[in-house]
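About this split. The held-out portion is used to measure sequence recovery: a designer receives only the structure tokens and must propose an amino acid at every position. Recovery is the fraction of positions where the proposal matches the reference. Here is one held-out target exactly as it appears in the evaluation file.
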């Protein structure tokens, strides 16, 4: 039986791995078969992670995290956790690859998943003009007219990044002011290739095999208008990934995993949670990393006491 299994490979998961590995607990980190590295794999330049004054690319930061964790003996598994039973003293973790593991403690660092707009043809057109990842798909929109939906930091970042490829980027936001930080918002507002469409939401997606345009609805007067675009990048936030454990640990009213005070302790003994899956507010790489550290220390204390 293992001492610690960490589920998730964003900043929270890798930091928990670094700390538990250095504590001699030989953690197993299950990193997901397709989305290893978490949200930062889909981002470009990370400018606000302390210790890197010149900034660095999101995937490079994640590669550093992994190298640091593995240097101290973390075992990494590229597989998806499909089922867990965390209720007993022995925690059971099963993967899509058919493996079953037992552990004394589990750290949940499953992060958050991109939010969809909930439009009828959204899934069908995903990969055919509709995307959630500018760094993955931006290249396909050279010299095209495209749009980004959202008013947070992600939308600003995506819109700015996409101007490297597209001739024109509309930024569609449902209100008349951005939620994004001032520095990110100003960058978008000052970019000549970006045009903001305020007080508007996407009401319909058009196009047969691929996206050809959208219908916009004005959120103030309800009027509609058509916008011809070949790409639509959705950046409207994300929801905590809790489906694996929602019937076993208590969740908050907002459906994040509930933890005790400033700790990472969930409602199940020996089960700890860290990063975006517990955080409705801050959701930064650095806060997720710090929260992974807390979970590692909590797991270590639990193992000492039991
Ligand atoms: P967010 O801060 O939650 O913003 C989501 C945005 O999407 C809001 O403007 C929201 O509108 C809008 N929205 C939500 N649901 C919508 C819907 N159904 N239709 C249309 N618009 C909708 O999410 P985020 O931008 O992904 O950022 C998440 C976290 O990561 C934040 O803490 C952010 O600071 C952080 N982040 C940081 C950086 C950076 O510092 N470099 C980069 C990216 C992300 P309202 O404004 O009306 O609510």
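Reference sequence for scoring:
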């Amino acid at each position: 039986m293992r001492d610690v299994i960490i589920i998730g490979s964003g900043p929270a998961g890798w930091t928990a791995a670094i700390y538990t590995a250095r504590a001699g607990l030989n953690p197993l980190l299950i990193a997901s078969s397709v989305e290893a590295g978490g949200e930062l794999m889909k981002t470009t330049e990370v400018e606000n992670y302390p210790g890197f004054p010149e900034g660095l690319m999101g995937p490079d930061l994640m590669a550093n995290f992994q190298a640091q964790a593995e240097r101290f003996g973390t075992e990494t598994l590229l597989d998806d956790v499909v089922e867990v039973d965390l209720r007993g003293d022995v925690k059971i973790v099963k993967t899509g690859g058919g493996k079953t593991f037992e552990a004394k403690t589990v750290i949940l660092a499953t992060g958050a998943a991109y939010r969809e707009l909930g439009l009828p043809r959204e899934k069908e057109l995903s990969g055919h003009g509709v995307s959630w990842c500018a760094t993955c798909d931006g290249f396909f929109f050279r010299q095209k007219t495209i749009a980004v939906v959202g008013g947070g930091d992600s939308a600003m970042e995506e819109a700015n990044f996409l101007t490297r490829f597209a001739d024109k980027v509309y930024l569609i936001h449902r209100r008349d002011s951005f939620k994004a930080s001032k520095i990110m918002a100003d960058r978008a507002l000052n970019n000549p290739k970006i045009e903001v469409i305020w007080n508007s939401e996407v009401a319909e997606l058009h196009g047969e095999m691929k996206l050809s345009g959208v219908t916009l609805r004005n959120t103030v007067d309800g009027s509609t208008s058509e916008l011809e675009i070949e790409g639509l990048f959705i950046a409207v936030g994300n929801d905590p990934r809790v489906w694996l454990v929602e019937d076993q640990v208590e969740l908050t009213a907002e459906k994040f995993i509930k933890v005790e005070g400033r700790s990472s302790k969930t409602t199940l003994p020996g089960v700890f949670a860290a990063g975006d899956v517990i955080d409705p507010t801050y959701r930064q790489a650095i806060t997720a990393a710090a929260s992974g550290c807390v979970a590692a220390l909590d797991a270590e204390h639990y193992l000492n006491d039991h």
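Annotator remark: The two ends are 14 Å apart (CA to CA).
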